[in-house]
Amino acid sequence: MNTRGKTVWAALAAAALAATATGCTSHDTGSPTSASSAPAASPTPSLNFQAGAAGIGDPYYPTYGNGGYDVASYAIKVKYDPKTNRLNGDVTVTASATADLSTFNLDLRGMTVRSVAVDEKPATQTRTGNELVITPDHGLATGVKFTVRVVYDGVPGSVTDPEVGKMGFFHTADGAFVVGEPESASLWFPVNDHPQDKATYDVQITVPAGLTAISNGVQGPQQTEAGWTTWKWSESKPMASYLTTLAIGDYRVVNSTHKGKPVVLGVTKQLAKGAADTSMSHTVAIADYLESVFGAYPFDSYGGVVVKDDDLHFALECQSRPVYSAGFFRRGVNDSVVVHELAHQWFGDSVSVKTWQDIWLNEGFASYAEWLWAEHKHESTAQAIFDNVYKNSDASIWRTPPAKPGKKELFGDSPYDRGAMALHALRKAVGDKAFFEILKKWAEQKADGVATTDEFVTLAEQVSGKQLDSVFQAWLFGTKKPAKP
Question: What are phi and psi of 471, to 5 degrees?
Answer without folding.
Answer: -65, -50
